[in-house]
Amino acid sequence: MFQQYAEFAFQEFGALVHSWVTLSDLDDVWHDGQPSGAPGPLQNILQLNKNIYQLYHQRFPDKGRRLSIGLRAKDVEILPLIKDSTTMDFLSVHIEYNCASASNFAKELSSLQMSSGDLPILIYEMTVHGCPYNDYQLLGNFVQALLNNNDLNIVGCDMMDMLAMLDVEDFPTSHDISQYHGIKTFRNSYQNVWNKFGAQSTTERDLFLNESFPSGFQWASSSESFKVEGGWVEDGKGETIWDRFGHDGLAFENQTADLACDSYHKVDYDVYLLRGLHVNTYQFSISWARIFPSGHRGSQSEKGAHYYDKLINALIESDIQPVVTLYHWDLPQALQDYGGWTNASIVEAFKDYADFCFSRFGDRVKTWNTFSSPWVVSHAGYGTGEHPPGVKDYVVASYQVTHNMLKSHAEAFHVYNDKYRKTQGGKVGIALNSDWAEPMDPSRPEDIAAADRYLQFMLGWFAHPIFVNGDYPATLKTQIEQKRNECPLSEPVRLPVFTTEESQRIRGTADFLGLNHYTSRLVNNSVGGCTTGPQGVGDFQAHVDPSWSSTASDWIYSTPWGLRRLLNYISTEYLNVTKVPIHITGNGMPTEYSGDTLDDTNRIEYMKSYINEALKAIFLDGVDVQRFTVQSLMDGFEGKQGYSQRYGLHHVNFEEADRPRTPKQSAYYYSEVIKQNGFGSLKGDVFKGAEMQLTRQPTALPSSEVPSKSKVVWEKFSHQSNFQRKLYHYGTFPQGFNWGVSSSAYQIEGGWNADGKGPSFWDTFTQKPGSIPANANGDVASDSYHRLNEDFYMLRALRVKSYRFSLSWSRIFPDGRRTSLNQKGVDYYNRLIEGLLVYNITPMVTLYHWDLPQALQDLGGWDNVEMINIFNDFCDFCFATFGNRVKFWMTFNQPHTIAWSGYGLGQIPPNVKNPGIAPYRVAHNLIKAHAKAYHTYDDKYRKSQGGLVSIALNADWIEPKDVHVPREVVAADRALQFQLGWFAHPIFKNGDYPDAMKWQVGNKSELQGLTETRLPSFTEEERSFIKGTADMFCVNHYTTKIVSHATLRLAPQSYEYDRDLSEAEEGGSPTTAISNQRAVAWGLRRLLNWIKEEYGDPEIYITENGVATDSKTTWDDSARVFYYKTYVDEALKAYDLDGVKLKGYIATSLMDSFEWLNGYKVGFGLHHVDFTNPNRPRTPKYSAHFYYQVIKDNGFPTPDDEKQLYGHFRKDFMWSTATASYQIEGGWRADGKGLSIWDKFAHTPLRVYNDDNGDIACDSYNKVEEDVAILKQLKVTHYRFSISWPRVLPDGTTKHINEAGLNYYHRLVDALLAANIQPHITLYHWDLPQALQDVGGWENETIIVKFRDYADLIFSRLGHKVKFWITINEPYNIANIGHGYGAAAPGFLLHNAIHLTLLRHINVCSLVWCEKQVKTRNVIETVLHGHEVRKQCYFMYYNP
């Protein structure tokens, strides 16, 4: 058949081909098994070749035609036999060349030539083995032997295997190889990279590249399951080898990962950090033991899988792509018990685990790492034993582990390829760790070769099989073989061998190469002898340069240039043929847990330099790097080092149960690198805010009546019950609702005199000792002037749509006038505004938030009418400078506070105490200043800028003390007009003050003997100028007051007395950290409705709302969460139920800050600021996560458990109703019933309300038929009732059984059964026989036997008819209410009642029930107070 095939080939292709080889490798063929008795295979093949030779030359007799058969060089000994048996025109030979055993290859070739009889030689195949760099000259000699030996007749040579490993430099294009005699020395990938970079000077090496990464570059941070998750046995998670390691006390100071960062319970917190960082990718690992506790699919934990579902979904919702590592060192202990990675069966287990993860999470996860740093597992876990499982076997186990992990990786890749790639479209790779290695002495070739071996033993061990040829590197194999030959009396290493099929299955199994890189080493050649381990077997030693920067780890030294060189090496060595990208999957350094853990400047320098080296590799060298991952997101359990070393961008306080996380300075630096996409400038970016269109033109409204028509709000709401007003409402706000947070300049900026800023009168005030508690001031405050990136971090994490902040007038105009313009102050606000727009956050700018330049206060401040024009000039400048990006302006914040607290009470700067006159004058000027600024914007900027202008007014809600008393309602309305209407009425209605104010102040002034009112008046022109000068209604709201009418004194003159009312707190609401500022959520809904009614249904923004907590409150601010939950819900009611045009909600505040007269004693922040730390670290509070969730949900969508569910219960569902004997039976002494503890309790004075008792109750003892008739009407299937223990056993014991009492229950049970209603009996519902209480009741252990006897009696008498039993009703109440608080019978203090109550239940189950169960197969249980049945003793079938 083969001859026929040859004839066909000659016929089809003979005219084109002049040289033929019949069989490429004779050696492979003749050793194939043959049937016994068959002719010798070699003779058959040689005869076949002879026949084909003759056939060929008969068909093509012309010269130049040649045919041969393939041989191996080692077959030269039988060459004469072959030549005698067959015919050939040239010698086709397969040569294996091994650098380790090469001697004089030219002589070997000459011998082959002589044996051939001077036939031409074709080196049909050449295989090269074991050729590190220092043997490349031998390979050069080999090529020269082909060219320079005139006695050799070489017609061709296969160079593929050689060229796959080597590079040739300066090889000219030529058709005649004999023309070129200048072949240079062959070099490998390492030599190429070293030659490229080794000669760099330190200056050249460290030159910083100010460029950007490619568009779409992936910025990531990472974590590992066992380091952060905690929850080590929660929800069925299995034990891992790291759990065992920690519990065996092998980590630093016996620390464990039992709780770690508690990430298992803090998904929202972790994703918050990621949003703050602004990464677009998060790499985390899955805990195999959390998914499969035993390591196998049969033990799958749904709750474990649900945790990762929740994490993945949260990431995607935050536009962060999940990258999942299937295995990061935490093997299920159950698998390790069978050998772990040394057991070949783990390959199938890992494949199944990967299959599950791909199927469960692959619809959302598009990038997978099968393993992370598998070298560490092999080296430290099974080689040195430093890591769990602590195996010290670098001879066999370590290499077997690598072997099995490579096969596991390949199987996982093929599972994805075969089953999921087409539908999911993801990528699968592996994250390999590698140092960079450099020769200790670059002038020594043997050190260069040793550095290459170092990399092959670390990186190549895994990368070569996957990315090159499915097998271990030749260097590694040769070195190992050499060691085995050198050490015949010991076995330094045993390298497993891949079959051909395994190699094929492993090769090419990665869509990318993940690289974990941290440091470098200097390597020199050494004689390792027969020592095990990579250095001994590899004949090299690793060192560090003393000049390299150290870290908290004795392994990691900062050598950033090594990353660029390593990336070049990888690209050359592994990715030349297989073109896949590189993902840097881990890079970072640890710091000690000591000193200032937040100001981690060393980590910043490390990150900066390593990231820049990656940039050089991309930008200068053309290496395809697509991701950079900073390790790690937060501090965690660092294995053997426990919590003593910190890799995190975020500090975790492991001393607090809540594990609060605080960004370090490195987190802010990294976020800035991400923002810039490297180190270049944001070229060509033009920041322009979105225009905000007016939905209606302001129209003049008539003056408010006294009281105003808005009193309908009290009529609508004040009759609500407490339950009605606190009823929670589910719903969402309209699309596009504006969620934001707020701050103000003096409270957060600090930098009080930085860069030319002038003093404000708050600077002057607070720097005077005694002004503020603890002499606090805003000199530094939250230091936002120097920490913009930190503020951006918080805003990104919250995902707010708006940020309200104020401009410091004296930072822009130090003396308040344009002539003193401070450009650095302007630059600061430009950076702030542009930074907000980069993150799609709308700037909401307040032009004046109480911090007047001191220079202007020296001129009289707001009591000087000149301030109107001065303020307008400041506004004009701000509109012109920032207005192309700012579209939401507020002229003043809380002008009421400025006028009354600053110029009336004198509590805040300028501390003027003139309560009767100055507040009205100041308010008059503020209103006119506002109107002038509004018109300036309207006339000069609105058309081109398209923004909105308003004023932020503050208002409490005012509730009348008695809504039924008209003058109380008038007083409440008057209070609102004096606070809110003072400014809102002129602006939103008719340009003038409300009549209620004019009337009150005018009358008071007259009564005080004044010739004119103390309330200034507006001219007609001014009223026209003022009215309508707001595009939306902005209101700050915190609390509610209760008001009643009062006639207040005439002297001294005061705005406060002008109101004629008294204020009180709403006593039924929670207090806060600020006195007179209770949390009264329902007031917000009413205030919003009042504004709607009073001011013509405007669009409303809540521009401040929040609550103060004590400064000691850091993470767990549950009071703030409750405040926001209730207040936002009341705002939702106003929008959703009442039709209020609510457009936005601004939470106060972004972070803790200087809280005016309270200094730093209280905080309003969603983020805690540590004012004792000069870096002012910011830590998110619980409220930050809650507010983010509100923003994400756009309110409070109806939860699933609140949604109406339609359907049917199962057919045999039990519908029942219930009673208790003492509550309904009555007949307290009838037919021999004994006394119960409730009989005595109810007959004791002052024990029961209204002196009621159960003597007769519902008289059910005498009304069985009536009760059953009611049950029939209800159509219940079951009826639960209790038996009165003293009715059956009057003294509580079986010494006397009251048959009359038992007969009552027989009659009731029979009547129920006749009505087809199943009885469900409670043995004990609190009515203990008094006779037993007299001897200690539930505190006497003898009661256990007595209860058992009582139960035994009831079971024996009624058990054949009753199938459902409850032993005890609500034992918690028996113990705690009856024996603890003493508020129920028997009214004693708690001792050991709980213990005995449980014992009696158990005794009934164990001693009685099993005897009855064989007959009745009933159910017995105990009912626990306030919950579903938690503990049941049921279906205990007795099997003799």
Description:
By secondary structure, this protein is an alpha/beta fold. The chain is 40% helix and 14% strand. It contains 54 helices and 46 strands. An 8-stranded parallel beta barrel has the order 7-8-9-10-11-13-18-20, surrounded by 5 helices. A hairpin with a 6-residue loop joins strand 16 and strand 17 (557-558). It is globular and about 140 Å long.
Record field, number of beta strands: 46
Neighbour order of strands in the largest sheet: 7-8-9-10-11-13-18-20
Structural class: alpha/beta
Helix content: 25-40%
Uncertain residue segments: 31-38, 167-186, 1406-1417, 1424-1440
Number of helical segments with 4 or more residues: 54
C-alpha Rg (nearest Å): 44 Å
Outline, from the CA principal axes? globular
Strand content: 5-15%
Average pLDDT number: 90
| Biggest sheet character | 8 strands, parallel, barrel
Q: What distance separates the N and C termini?
A: 78 Å
